[in-house]
Amino acid sequence: MDPLLFISILPVVILLIYIYKKDKNEREPLGLLLKTFGCGILTAIILLVFGVIKKLYGFEIFAFANDSAILKSFLQAAIPEEGLKFLFLYLVIWNNREFNEHFDGIVYAVFLSMGFACLENILYVFNGGWETGVARALLAVPGHFLFAVIMGYFFSLARFSPMRRRRYMLRAILYPILAHGIYDSLCFLEEMYGDRLGLTGIFVILLLAFDIILWRAGLKAIR
C-alpha cells in the first residue's frame, strides 16, 4: 500500500473500530454501516464537485466570506459539510428499523462522517505529504469524529424523545456546525494572522484547548 494512502486512512480505520466496539449491546449490520460510510464519501464528492464548478465558472455564493476567517469557516465549510452529513444521516437512518437503540445514532453518524473524512484526508495528504498526514491524523480526522458524536447523540435523543424531538433535532445540526465552525475559525485565523502578528503559538494553544473540550464532550456523550 502507498505510504501516503496508509497514513490517510489509518486514523479513520482506528476511530471506526473504536466506535464499533463501543456498541456492545447490539452490533449494527455491516451492510448498513458500509452504506452509511459510502454516503459520507458521497457527501465529500458532492462538495468537491461543487468546488470544481465554482472554479471553472468563477462564481462564489459567499465571496464576501473570503475576507473573514470566521465567515469562511461557517459559510464555506461547517454549514455545508455538517448540513449535508445531517441530511444523509436522516435519509438513510431515521426510519430504518436498525435504528433501535440510543447509541446507534452515534455509530451511524460516525461512520458517515468518517466516510467524508476519509476521502477528504486522502486528497489533503496526497497534496501536502507526510507532515499534513500526521497533523490531520491528530486533529482534523478526530475533529470530524467528534462533530459526528455530537450530531449522533442529539439525533438519537430526537428519535427516542418524541416530546422534545424538534429541540433535539435542532441541536443535532446546530451544535456540530458550531463545533466545526469554531475549529476551522481557529485554523484559518492561525493561517491568516499567525506568522504576520507572531500569534502562531497562541492560536495553536487555543486549538488544542478547544480540541480537549471537544474530546471531553464527545467521550461523555459516548458514555
Write a structural description.
The protein has helices at 3-22, 30-57, 69-93, 102-128, 130-138, 140-160, 165-197, 200-222. The protein is mainly alpha-helical and 223 residues long. The longest helix is centred in the C-terminal third of the chain and has 33 residues, at 165-197.
Radius of gyration (Å): 17 Å
Element-level helix/strand string: HHHHHHHH
Please summarize the sheet with the most strands. Answer: none
Arithmetic mean pLDDT: 90
Count, helices: 8
Residue stretches low in confidence (pLDDT < 50, at least 5 long) are none
How much helical structure, as a percent, in the residues?
over 70%
Cα end-to-end separation: 35 Å
What is the beta-strand fraction? under 5%
Structural class: mainly alpha
Globular, elongated, flat, extended or rod-shaped: what is the shape?
Answer: globular
SS elements, strand count: 0
Short description:
The protein is mainly alpha-helical. Helix content is 83%, strand content 0%. The protein is globular, with a radius of gyration of 17 Å.
Describe this protein with a few key phrases:
223 residues; mainly alpha
SSE arrangement:
Blueprint: H1 3-22, H2 30-57, H3 69-93, H4 102-128, H5 130-138, H6 140-160, H7 165-197, H8 200-222
